[in-house]
């Protein structure tokens, strides 16, 4: 299986704001991006091995392991200008490629990722996007996605549940994306239809599974098979974010899915069927301190920022 993953990466120590990419200390961002890239290769790449005796049983020799789940992986880090930390990563330079884009707003860096994915259509089985502080530790991740679409078709997309783990005190794992964002009154015109196929049930390895239409489709990432990526890239709303879902960051990760596919997530009773870790515990702490709805009114912010554009959701045939 060939997989292309794109990662938008930006760091500006002169910036200000809640995002890690705008803090003065670069070390947390270096560690997060390093963990992101390493986890992909450690989990999916051709690095698994074990030791077995040679034919003469005189010494041990390394042998390849996990060949059934091995992924032929390419990673592209998308940057703009000199606002990045790639030269400081404790990683070999051959484990990723770099694409640089000229942008007025770095929050739209994800659009460069989308363009990179489109340019490589026809060469990969899966095309993915993930923010630079996500950690993937499921060797069967793409096999699960393939299983899901074999049963439901390519008009449906399965998103992982995003979680954080407590860094101190009692070990805790918390899923950090509440299930109300896109059905809030602040997102009443959001292009995400919840009127059909709201709950799906299946059996996997003898266990019952439930999937829900994602009331919050955002996971900071997406993963599409070749047919889905090709279909999305042909839609008029591809790379057109004159309207937004929450902000430019969330739009690049999620809005295209909402406009094009039926988006699902594993129900919380089986949330770990497909999941991805968000580095650190910033979201966990935020919800512990402020469990109320904290996003600004998108309609008001959009009216002030840019003209509204209408677009109807498309469905694969």
What does this structure look like?
The protein has helices at residues 27-44, 109-119, 141-152, 226-233, 248-260, 282-289, 298-305; strands at 2-8, 49-53, 60-64, 72-79, 97-100, 126-130, 134-135, 156-158, 161-165, 173-175, 199-204, 207-213, 221-225, 262-266, 275-278. The chain is an alpha/beta fold. The strands form 4 sheets. It has a 5-stranded mixed beta sheet with strand order 5-4-1-6-13, sandwiched between helices. The chain has a 4-stranded mixed beta sheet with strand order 7-15-9-10. The two termini are 25 Å apart. The relative contact order is 0.16. The model is unreliable at 295-317 (pLDDT under 50).
């Amino acid at each position: 299986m060939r997989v292309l993953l794109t990662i938008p990466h930006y760091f500006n120590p002169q910036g200000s704001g809640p995002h890690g990419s705008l803090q003065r200390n670069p070390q947390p961002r270096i560690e997060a991006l390093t963990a992101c890239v390493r986890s992909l290769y450690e989990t999916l790449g051709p690095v698994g091995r074990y030791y077995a005796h040679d034919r003469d049983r005189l010494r041990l020799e390394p042998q390849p392991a996990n060949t059934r789940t091995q992924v032929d992986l390419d990673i592209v880090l998308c940057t703009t200008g000199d606002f990045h930390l790639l030269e400081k990563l404790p990683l070999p330079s051959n484990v990723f490629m770099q694409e640089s884009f000229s942008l007025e707003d770095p929050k739209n860096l994800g659009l460069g990722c989308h363009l990179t994915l489109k340019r490589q259509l026809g060469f990969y089985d899966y095309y993915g996007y993930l923010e630079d502080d996500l950690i993937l530790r499921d060797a069967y991740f793409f096999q699960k996605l393939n299983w899901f679409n074999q049963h439901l078709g390519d008009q449906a997309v399965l998103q992982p549940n995003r979680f954080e783990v407590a860094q101190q005190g009692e070990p805790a794992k918390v899923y950090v994306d509440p299930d109300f964002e896109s059905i809030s009154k602040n997102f009443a015109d959001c292009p995400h239809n919840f009127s059909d196929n709201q709950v799906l049930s299946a059996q996997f390895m003898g266990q019952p599974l439930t999937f829900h239409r994602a009331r919050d489709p955002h996971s900071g990432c997406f993963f599409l098979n070749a047919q889905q990526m090709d279909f999305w890239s042909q839609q008029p709303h591809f790379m057109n974010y004159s309207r937004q879902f929450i902000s430019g960051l969330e739009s690049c990760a999620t809005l295209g899915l909402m406009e094009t596919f039926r988006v699902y997530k594993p129900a919380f009773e089986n949330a770990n069927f497909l999941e991805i870790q968000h580095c650190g515990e910033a979201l966990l702490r935020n919800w512990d301190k402020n469990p109320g709805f904290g996003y600004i009114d998108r309609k008001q912010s959009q009216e002030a920022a840019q003209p509204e554009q209408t677009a109807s959701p498309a469905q694969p045939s």
